[in-house]
Amino acid sequence: MASLDLAHTSSFKGGSETFLRNVFENILKTYLRKNPTTKRIWELIQSLDNEKICYDHFTFMTLKVDSYGIDSLSSFFMNYGYKIGLWFSPPDVIVPDDGHGLGNGPLPRLVMGEILVDELSPESQAIIRKYLKPEGGKQALLSSILGSLIWEKPTWSEFKQIAEENELAAWAFINGYTLNHLAFAAHRLKHVLEHGFDLNHDGGVLKVSTDGLLLQVSSISEKLPVEFADGVTKLVPASYIEFTDRLVLPQFKELPYDQIKEFHRREDFALNNADNILESSRFTSNV
Hints:
Blueprint: H1 17-34, H2 36-47, E1 55-64, H3 70-79, E2 83-84, E3 88-89, H4 101-104, E4 109-116, H5 122-131, H6 140-146, H7 156-165, H8 167-175, E5 181-185, E6 207-208, E7 214-218, E8 223-227, E9 233-237, E10 240-246, H9 271-277
Parallel strand pairs: 1-4, 5-10
Antiparallel strand pairs: 1-5, 2-3, 6-7, 7-10, 8-9
Helix pairs in contact: 1-2, 7-8
Cofactor: Fe(2+)
Protein name: 2-oxoadipate dioxygenase/decarboxylase
InterPro entries: HGLS
């Protein structure tokens, strides 16, 4: 991974930029440690000749109950300059022309999903509330860095109840604040479709926004063994990886390639793409 020694002066405000980048680096390390197939994809992209990884966005899932929702994670990042919108946009930092990775590349956008626990069935709500104690969400960032649940693991029957009702809720309940997925900035990479990845076909392998300027491809979550509180071991979806290609906006299409910066490219996300991308961590029909 890239060194975190910053070789440039930054306009970053709100605290130490080096500290923020170290937080991201450790979230990434945990994500790769817990997801072997994702790690192999990451290493393959890292190894491509003359390729330098940059990250488009990091995505987390949360459970909106007591102190465990989006605010449990977002408050830290907002203290370091992230701005809230439909997603969290990074603070302004000075990035060298050859800046890459989490060491001195562009800071990733943040996407934070939130499961509305109050809209689940009374049975599923009771299970989740049984495990998620008030105020525990204050440890959300530490949980994401360590890859450990704040709450105890449920029994298989409890997990199955939630999974049969809402797969994303079940994913968040068993994976906690571990990164759901990260997205490479694919316009900085080449050949991302040429290596036989197990890809998400929902909405087509290549998911295209209605304006044609946002292209996304994602892998399928591998299923890893989890031992539940009652000793039952089952395979459940882990995390996955995404490639996001933000094309140059029409008003900048005549710019020479070496003059194109991030702000010349499409910025927003697309709901139709996002709905299909989230299917990457779906369960099998037999939970």
